[in-house]
Design brief:
The chain is an alpha/beta fold. The chain contains 20 helices and 9 strands. 47% of the residues lie in helices and 10% in strands. The protein has a 9-stranded mixed sheet, with helices on both faces.
């Protein structure tokens, strides 16, 4: 049975503090071995360093931590398990190499020679060549890698390292376990360095730590969750059966707008839905109407990231819309007497709703994802709304001077968030000035600012317009007053087309045009 290889950390004698004024962390630093700063796949074993005077570890709190070379500890690894995997692949290539391709990557191997052999075996397998000790040695010689792996004797040793390949899966699990531990150590080490460097705010560091740790878990879970085609087919059949049994009903979360729900069949988990328009068209109003319906009528938790408006402004708008009262009268301090009972009733309904509003300005996609994850874990949010995309920012260096690349990273991050949390994400966005130059001001999909990545990542793109804003004269404006159109310009799993709406400006809310005209 392969055994884990661990090197004991060198012991150090401890001196008592010279005075009570010395920081207590100085003594803690003497006891705590520092993490190695190798990458996940760094196969270099940690070198053992001699003991040093304890005074070198006594530093003020605001200085850098002890260097990684001062205290050494071997990264988790199991060289014997790695040899067992390679030996099983060579002994039974037809049975084991396919599984190895699916489960392992070269960086999962700690020993450089083992990673090199693994890559070369996969190369031979991919080219359809026979795989055994002879063909492997020939390939090593051809690519000048024989010395790198330890010579012909090392290849023969690996070939005969295990008596048979029956325990291949067990060896793979051991290799993956050690690679996962190294990945955790590397991630945590980077977090420690960030905390000492003071290059980011503490909140940003915390958000980055959460993102990195969650990414490790998500990658591991996605690898474990891979199923065969039969399970996927059965899942699809069950979904079709459920749809048939509930035919005529919206399959996703209803938006509260009947005609929109008929077109998109509700908002389904994992969807990224973009609502785009020129300024003052009512993007925020439409999004808040949807949030109100989901949180109050459907009684589902909703997260709202408002980068433009304050929480107080949003709540006041929600109150006026819910109470169906004139918002301008409320803001000017001249409400009508009959408005107060309506406002109190609306306030009671909204107070019971699980609606979480974050008004952090210029929030980064990393911080937003961290906050959304916490809300999902604590409150099980079922919908995320972002108002609006162009006010967000990316924290990566490569996106600092390239706005199109920054929007692309934000867009892909929001789509990843929808899939990770398994909730629909509504993203508000601005369109460029091109509609202003067209007769009627009708927007197009290509009018989205930095539109390439947005068009690609979005599952649904709805363009909102109010024709009265582009009327040629007052008479035409009066004829078109209140009319609005929600143009479904893209839908990954359904038709595109126009949805007629009514905008009630004094109540800052939208309604289905057909239903509102009946009233």
């Amino acid at each position: 049975m392969p055994e884990d290889s661990t090197d004991p950390a060198p012991s150090q004698d401890q001196d008592p503090p010279e005075s009570l004024d010395e920081p207590l962390v100085a003594l803690a630093a003497e006891d705590a071995p520092e993490l190695q700063t190798h990458d996940i796949g760094d196969p270099r074993p940690a070198s053992t360093s001699p003991s040093r005077d304890n005074q070198r570890l006594r530093r003020p709190l605001d200085e850098n931590p002890p260097n990684a070379q001062e205290i050494s500890r071997a990264l988790p690894n199991n060289a014997d398990a790695e040899k067992g995997v390679l030996s099983a692949m060579l002994q039974s290539p037809r049975e084991n190499i396919g599984d190895a391709v699916e489960k392992l990557k070269p960086e999962a191997f700690y020993v450089p020679a083992h990673a090199t052999l693994f890559e070369l075996i996969l190369k031979l397998y991919d080219s359809g060549q026979p795989i055994d000790a002879i063909t492997l040695q020939e390939a090593l010689l051809r690519e000048n890698l024989m010395d790198k792996v330890g010579g012909p004797a090392a290849v023969l040793e690996i070939m005969d390292f295990i008596p048979d390949a029956s325990h291949f899966d067990f060896y793979v699990d051991l290799v993956l376990e050690k690679a996962l531990l190294r990945r955790i150590i590397s991630t945590c080490t980077d977090s420690i360095k960030s905390a000492y460097s003071h290059e980011m705010e503490p909140e940003q560091i915390l958000a980055q730590v959460e993102v990195d740790i969650m990414d490790i878990g998500n990658e591991r879970n996605s690898a474990v969750a891979q199923g065969d085609m039969l399970s996927h087919v059965m899942s699809a059949i069950e979904a079709i059966q459920e749809t048939f049994e509930n035919r005529g009903k919206v399959q996703g979360i209803p938006t509260g707008f009947v005609d929109i729900d008929k077109q998109i069949n509700g908002m389904t988990p994992g969807q990224m839905i973009i609502i785009a328009a020129r300024p003052s068209m009512g993007k925020t109003s439409l999004a808040m109407n949807i949030a109100e319906h989901v949180a109050v009528e459907q009684e589902l938790p909703v997260a709202i990231f408002s980068l433009e408006m304050t929480t107080q402004d949003l709540v006041q708008r929600l109150l006026c819309s819910r109470a169906r009262v004139n918002g301008q009268n409320i803001r000017s301090g001249m409400p009508e007497q009959q408005d107060f009972p309506k406002l109190m009733k609306a306030a009671d309904e909204l107070a019971k709703a699980k609606m979480f509003i974050d008004e952090t300005p210029s929030i980064s996609i990393m911080e937003m994802r961290a906050k959304a994850r916490r809300l999902k874990q604590k409150e099980d949010i079922q919908l995320v709304i972002v108002d609006y995309l162009q006010l967000m920012r990316s924290t990566t260096r490569r996106a600092q001077d390239n706005r199109q690349l920054e929007i692309s990273e934000i867009s892909s991050g929001l789509k990843a968030l929808a899939k990770e949390l398994e909730v629909p994400v509504i993203v508000l966005a601005q369109v460029n000035r091109n509609p202003e130059e067209r007769k009627g001001g009708r927007p197009r999909l290509s009018d989205l600012r930095e539109s390439g990545s947005l068009e690609q990542d979005a599952d649904v793109v709805g363009l909102l317009m109010r024709p009265e804003r582009y009327a040629d004269d007052d008479d035409e404006s009066a004829d078109l007053e209140g009319e609005a159109t929600f143009i479904i310009a893209k839908q990954r799993s359904g038709p595109i087309g126009d949805v007629p709406l009514i905008f009630i400006s004094d109540q800052v809310r939208f309604a289905d045009r057909a239903r509102e005209s009946e009233h």
